[in-house]
Amino acid sequence: MSTRAGSAPLPSPEDLARLVSKVTEQMCSLPFSLAAPEASAALEALRAPTARASKIWIEGPRALAVAIVLDLKSAKTAASAAFALPAEEVDGDMIDDLLREFVNIIAGQINILLKLDHSLGLPSAVEPREILDPSQWHGTLLQNEGESLILWVAVGATSPGGSPERDCKRG
Q1: Range of the domain at 96
Q2: What is the pLDDT of residues 65-104, one digit of tens each?
Q3: Where are the beta strands (DSSP E) in the chain?
Q4: Between β-strands 119-120 and 124-126, what pairing exists: parallel, antiparallel or unpaired?
Q5: By the number of CB atoms within 10 A of the CB, which of 24, 34, 100, 120 ranks highest?
Q6: Is 165 within a domain?
Q7: Is 81 part of any domain?
């Protein structure tokens, strides 16, 4: 991996899995790893209207967006563990707060990994379908075997307004 700011490739799926698992394991004792190829059918659960997603910008000369998507079961399980509450007591606001925290920390780790030294924007809840477009995002499907949880983490270089810019140069 190149060490020059702005020229490093995007994180590998293995790097993304390690970064995400480090965050989820610390915050809610739920490690994630790369999903097995047969788990790709689980992507349909991430397209469900109940799925939740959050996105944040790493702002600078090499602007990148970082996003995560969880299906409702996975999001409730993670929030239940993080807030030490029964899953039935977890509400949508708690899930959105947790996902924003996840994506904020993961983006910070990617910023460090890529040696960008850029500022982070504010995380926001977004529609999952915005994140699941493979033409716009470098994404990786992760799973937690013990709980059968799934999580999609993605890095992309689309502009904050939503239009794709493969070589986004802002700053």
Answers
A1: 13-35+43-156
A2: 999 999 999 999 999 999 999 999 999 999 999 999 999 9
A3: 33-34, 52-59, 64-70, 119-120, 124-126, 137-144, 149-156
A4: unpaired
A5: 24
A6: no
A7: yes
CATH number at 61 reads 3.40.1550.10
The answer to whether 121 and 111 have CB atoms below 8 angstroms apart is no
**Most distant CA pair in the chain: distance in Å?**
47
The answer to whether position 108 is within a domain reads yes
Tell me how far apart the alpha carbons of residues 57 and 123 are, in angstroms, rounded to a whole number. Answer: 7
Tokens 């993304």 belong to residue: 16
Dihedral sign for Cα 145, 151, 155, 156, please.
Answer: positive
List, for residues 128-161, the tens digit of each pLDDT value.
Answer: 988 888 778 888 999 997 778 889 999 987 554 4
Question: Is the entire prediction scored with pTM above 0.90?
Answer: no
